[in-house]
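Q: I have 463 residues here and want to know how they pack in 3D. Can you give me a structure?
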Amino acid sequence: MPEPTTRRRHLVLAICCTSLLIVSLDVTVLNVALPSLRSDLGASTSGLQWTIDAYTLVVASLLMLAGSTADRIGRKRVFMAGLVVFTLGSALCSMAPTLEALIVFRTVQAVGGSMLNPVAMSIITNTFTEPRERARAIGVWGAVVGISMAAGPLVGGVLVESVGWRSIFWLNLPVGLAALLLTLRHIPESRAPHPRRPDPVGQLLVIALFGSLTYAIIEAPNAGLATVLPFAAVAVAALTGLVLYEPRRAEPLIDLRFFRSAPFSGATVIAISAFAALGGFLFQSTLYLQNERGLDALHAGLWMLPMAAPTFLCAPLSGRLVGSRGPRIPLLIAGLTMTTSAVMFAAGAQTSTAGLFTGYLLFGIGFGFVNAPITNTAVSGMPRAQAGVAAAVASTSRQLGQTLGVAVVGAVLASGAGWWVLVGCGASVLVVGLASSGDWARGTVDRVWGQEAPREQPQTARG
């Protein structure tokens, strides 16, 4: 098949970014609507956590299955199926009569969402084969997160104040349908030359691990140890099962060799830490602005701009830095600024307007710089034939991090320790980023993959 033209590649990138936009908008818009959900549906704090985590948990559990399935039966086909299911789930969410129904319909959305972002990233990886061009494309992909963070709270605030929280799910309907039609016409089909076979046991173990761990964290403050401990035990057993079972399969759901590559393992830890910080930050900030400061949804959304604007501006800059200098500098900036922001809020800086603005600004800069090195490191050190699975593991780490961030911060919210949790997340980005981007880390890639390792790895991983 001939290489696509530059115009075609950019069109494919735009279509794939549309899927990220609707998924990211759904998270940021819903955060602004949390107080309205609390009053209209009588939701408790744990209920609010589940409206977010029911989505991110299911997405995290199914991402690797979606990535390997796309490599096997066709990325375009799975991507289109995801758009259909996600749009249908959005329509159902807008009609949910109770909190329990909303949580169920959010899981329907999540099944579709699991087929979007990792598959889109795999399409991008296989479309942009030159390493620097790929890094810039990933920077654009990261900038879309900034767009969603800027537009989501503002649009959500307007809709919640004027029409009601149900209208926030209507946003996905026209965008999802347009993306579906454009995908059908413009995105070429692709698949791995040697597709992997299904791994149902591994998939069930992943679902058991993520689900039981999240339930134990969210319900721990209210349910008591007698209820929570069995779920914690299930999580430990599922993790043990994965470690023992997956290496025995010729084609596992999770190839544990990935994690013998220090850059890939580092990218996984950084993704969990950074997105845990994001999930906890948005959850805690929304409740603070509307419950403590007494702002309505629109004005709370406006306060997200100092965080969203630098995320949007810094993401493409981060992509260019990764392409020319490697991931170390962006990770250093991200770790320092996110940690500083969390320390400021832990010390009470948000009580002043200047402190709140500065903290949001620093967090936005850090989050803008962190996304491109995560994705680039995850996919660049792997054979292209496994791009779908590698991208899915990176995306799983993001969703798992966001799930855990909301769960942990919500669990400790009453004690006032939520900001200190985010301090730890920022410090993890800094320390692990430095450790996984040096000469020793690059050497582990060659030892793991040998001749399979892509030739651009030394360039894109240069620290």
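Q: Anything worth noting?
A: The chain has two domains: 8-186+253-460, 200-252. The domain at 8-186+253-460 is CATH 1.20.1250.20 (Growth Hormone; Chain: A;).
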